[in-house]
Amino acid sequence: MDTLLLAIKIVITLLVVILFAQNIVLVEVRFLAWGARMPLALLLLAIYVLGMVSGKSLFHLLGRLRKDRRRPTR
């Protein structure tokens, strides 16, 4: 089973490397008054990391709210 998981991780890593290698073209990103030119691969990575951080924060917050709701009040 460990060999299968390692093989899956290697395949996913190779797919990510191919994705980044094929998307090195510069794109312009604008947000309100801020603007920047960056490789598309870097933008994808930044969005992925922001999604991971915000998703983990949201699940942590929901878990705390559930835990507080279960606690009896006096």
Can you describe this structure?
The protein is flat. 70% of the residues lie in helices and 16% in strands. The mean pLDDT is 86. The chain has two helices and two strands, in the order αββα. It has 74 residues and is of the alpha+beta class. Strands 1-2 form a two-stranded antiparallel ribbon. It has one domain (2-70). This is DUF1049 domain-containing protein. Keywords: Membrane, Transmembrane, Transmembrane helix. The chain crosses the membrane at residues 12-34, 40-62.
Intertermini distance: 50 Å
- DSSP summary, beta strand count: 2
**Quaternary class:** single chain
Strand content: 15-25%
SSE succession: HEEH
Strand order of the largest sheet: 1-2
Low-confidence stretches: none
What is the C-alpha radius of gyration, as a whole number of Å?
20 Å
Number of domains: 1
Overall shape: flat
Q: Estimate percent helicity.
A: over 70%
Main β-sheet, in a few words?
A: 2 strands, antiparallel
Task: Enumerate how many helices there are, as a single number.
Answer: 2
Mean pLDDT: 86
Given the helix and strand composition, which structural class is it?
alpha+beta
Keywords: Membrane, Transmembrane, Transmembrane helix
Protein name: DUF1049 domain-containing protein
Transmembrane segments: 12-34, 40-62
